[in-house]
Write the C-alpha cells for this entry.
Amino acid sequence: MPRSFIDLSIYLENGVLSDPPAFAPHIDYVTHQDSPEQIAAFFPGLRKGDLPDGEGWAAETVRLSTHNGTHLDAPYHFHSTMNKALGQAERSTTIDEVPLEWCFQPGVKLDFRHLPDGHVVTAREVEVELERIQHTLQPLEIVVVNTRAGDRYGQADYLSAGCGMGYEATMYLLERGVRLTGTDAWSWDAPFVHTAKKYEATRDPSLIWEGHKAGRDIGYCHLEKLHKLESLPADGFYISCFPHKIRGASAGWTRAVAIFDDALMPKHKQA
C-alpha cells in the first residue's frame, strides 16, 4: 500500500470556538499590501511602487497559549513531580525534554463516541474496547480516544461535549507501557462543567482533573483537540506528533498526523 496521511490537527484560527473565550488564540494578519512600509524601514528611500507589483511580504502575529490548537501536554503540565508509583517522585518533564521516541509510534484508537457527555471512562471500559477491537497494548503505542466532542468542534457545545478519561483508565494504559495518549475533546478529563456538578454534590477534590493527575504516579503526555479520529481504524497506522521545542514549557503545538505505511508496521500487523 502506498504511504498515505490523515491530518489529525485542528486549525489555529480566529473566530472558531476551540477554547473558553478568555483563552482563545488571536491572529493578526499582515498582507502583501500592508507591508511595504515594513520593508522600507530596512531600505531607506524605497517606495511601494519600487517593489514587484507593489507588494511586500505576508506575515502574521499570533497571541497564543501553548494549549491552543492541537497540542501535546508534557508531564509538567499535570504536576510538578511524576513517577511516584515507579519508586520515587522526580521532577516532571517539560515539553522540550519529552523523549522524541514517544512521539512517533504505532497508534491505537479507542471509540467512545457512544458514551454520554461528562462520562468518566473506567479501566474496565478500556479493557472491553480493547477486546472489541482485538488489540493487545504494546509499550509506547500511542492511544487516542474518539469521543463525541470530535463531531462538535467549533460548535457552541464543544467545550462540554464528550467523555473523559478517569484516573484508573489512564493508569490502565500507563501500567502497560503507554506514554502518550490523545483525545479529540478539549481535555483528556471529562469536561469541567460536568465535573463541577459532581464536585458540588460530593465535595470530593479527587474528581478534579483525575486523568491528568495520573501523571503524578507515572509520567506521560497527551494530545488534546485532535481531529478526524473517526477516519481512523482501530490500529494499523503510525502517529507523528513532535511538539514545538519551547524551553521549560508545559505544552507545545504539534501537527499530529496519522501515517499509513506497511513498511512502518510490525510484521504481524502487515496485511
Summary: The first helix runs from residue 36 to 40. The radius of gyration is 21 Å.
